[in-house]
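haha ok so turns out i had the wrong file open the whole time. this is the CORRECT one, sorry everyone. sequence first:
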Amino acid sequence: MAQSKVAAFRGKDLRERESLIQNLRRRFERVSRRRDGRPWIARAGRMALILYWGVCLAVIAVGLNAWRPEIGQRLAYALRDPAMDLTAPFPNCSAAHAAGYSDIPVGSPAYTERQDGDGDGLACEPYPHTGAGERLSKIWRRWRG
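then structure:
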């Protein structure tokens, strides 16, 4: 069937071919416009839903903080980086790891450039076998008090 359409197209003169091509382009543009409208509406709806839930969570958080302020204080303490409480740098990263500290940020008094091997602003980064689990367990211990 496709070959017969191609053969019929080849048999037409130049004006008829151009007319067929223009007709196909118009049809393609109409279909494309119709399809492009739907994803935009879907994206706008999705963004409105995300905004709605964000506002709901913010209202809940503000209400919870007004009702039970100690929860907000405990959460802030649990999420605060313990390295910011240090007063002096460690002699080396092995000592920092033995004390339970890793990823010491630039703003901490314990940060030294010589312990930041890759220059990313975090000194004494954990060894490859440790990682987010260690940080999460630290947060959990601080949260539980």
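The chain has a mean pLDDT of 79.
again sry for the mixup
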